Structure formats: structure tokens, C-alpha cells
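Typical record is below.
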Amino acid sequence: SMTKLCDGCRVSNAAIYCTADMAYICLGCDLKVHGANKLASRHERVWICEVCEHAPAAVICKADAAALCASCDTDIHSANPLANRHERVAVTPFFE
């Protein structure tokens, strides 16, 4: 499958993309790596696309309550006129 493995442990599926480290990481490694010190906790992270589980999310679709990459967003929301009406907002990076 296209599911990305965590760049940290190489065991779990990645759930987050860290822009600063340019790394795809699982939730466990995110806690370890980004909880390690003050500087690491400032790293910008975004969720990974819930559809392809392969690329960083670019938008949140409010109707589907889903984080999607640009490619999946286009595929899903161009499928029909109703889907095209879904309200989407840009993903906001998070820091913990």
C-alpha cells in the first residue's frame, strides 16, 4: 500500500509530517522527538492526508471532517457538483 511508515521507528504508520525535520512520523515518535526539548516543540507539524495516507494534508474539508492533501482534495471534490460545494479551509500547522 501507499501508507507511509514512520521515518523515526520504521514500525508504525506515519500520522504527522514535520516541516522542520522534513520527516513523516507516528504519534509515538512525535511525542518523543517533539517533547524532548523547547526547540523541538516549536517545530511546525501537519496531519497526513486521511485518504492516501501518503502526503501532508493541505486542506480540511468541514463537510467530511477530513484532512486531505491537494491531490486527494481535487479528486474527491471534483467528483460531482455537490461535493464541490463542501467548505474547505487551509490546514493550520500545529505546535505542542
The radius of gyration is 14 Å.
